Amino acid sequence: MTRTLDAVILTYHSISKGPSPLCIPPDVFAGQMSWLKANAHVVPLTVLVESLAHDQPMPQRTVALTFDDGFADFYTEAAPTLRRLELTAVVFLPAAHCGRIASWDVQAGGRPLMSWAQIRELAAQGLSFGSHSMTHPALISLTDTELAYELAESKRSIEAEIGQDVRFFCYPYGCFDERTRRAVTSYYSGGACSTNPRALARAEDLFTLPRIDAHYVRNFAMFRSIFTGRFRLYLCARRFMRNLGLWIRSTKRAHKHPFQRFMDRSDPGFIA
């Protein structure tokens, strides 16, 4: 059995108030970051991955912070908190949407995304950026040509804007299969993040890295338990319920008219 490490990758989306599971209120986020500063070892994703790749020991309670989608409230709410506490993070960008409105699904809620000028400013301050594809599609629904475009053009676009190498990818909707995983390895040298909610394990696949979504730990008591056995049992229960929900949705889609299945193809999971 693979040994679980005392290390996690946390995922955030929008740092704002709202009913969507993508939203974490700014005061809740600030409290969580203050707790991590005092009680955990927050490292860049690249440092964590290098430790995994070379089977090097990590400090107890190691955390890497990731943000999906690049919402504008990262610039106004998250970045100042991270800067004040001297914490770092990586932000995964859907490159074609930067400076525009999130329009890929209902959960995204039409929220504005950071402009390239804001992204360049944050990159100059030391924050890291990765790719979340060009247009945020479910990659498994794409042809090989479409997939190559989403992976290659997003990397090229972000690198051209920030002048830094983009080494990490994040699967939109956490949706991937062996074909898409293999394609990602051709373009990104660092690794790729999924939405599988669990702690990291030794001998982890660097291109399907598990992450714990902040929606699961918005309760502060639950957040403070993220390195405990009780929390791992909680994650097991969440994974079971999530997989059950995905199975039910896939079963329903299988009985739909082909056009309805096509319309549903970009909604394979719970968290965007």
Judged by helices, strands and strand pairing, the structural class is alpha/beta
End-to-end separation:
30 Å
Second CATH tier, the architecture: Alpha-Beta Barrel
Percent helix range: 40-55%
Order of helices and strands: EHEHEHEHEHEHEEHHH
Topology diagram in text:
Blueprint: E1 7-12, H1 26-39, E2 41-42, H2 45-53, E3 62-68, H3 72-85, E4 90-93, H4 116-124, E5 128-131, H5 144-162, E6 168-170, H6 178-187, E7 191-193, E8 212-213, H7 220-223, H8 229-254, H9 258-264
Parallel strand pairs: 1-3, 1-8, 2-3, 3-4, 4-5, 6-7
Helix pairs in contact: 1-3, 5-6
Could you explain the architecture of this structure?
This protein is α/β, with parallel strands linked by helices and 272 residues long. The protein has one domain: Alpha-Beta Barrel (TIM Barrel), CATH 3.20.20. It has 9 helices and 8 strands. It has helices at 26-39, 45-53, 72-85, 116-124, 144-162, 178-187, 220-223, 229-254, 258-264; strands at 7-12, 41-42, 62-68, 90-93, 128-131, 168-170, 191-193, 212-213. The strands form 2 sheets. Strands 1, 2, 3, 4, 5 and 8 form a 6-stranded parallel β-sheet that branches. Helix 2 (45-53) links the parallel strand 2 and strand 3 (62-68). Helix 1 packs parallel to helix 3. The longest helix has 26 residues, at 229-254. The model is unreliable at 258-272 (pLDDT under 50).
At a glance:
This protein is an alpha/beta fold and 272 residues long. It contains nine helices and eight strands.
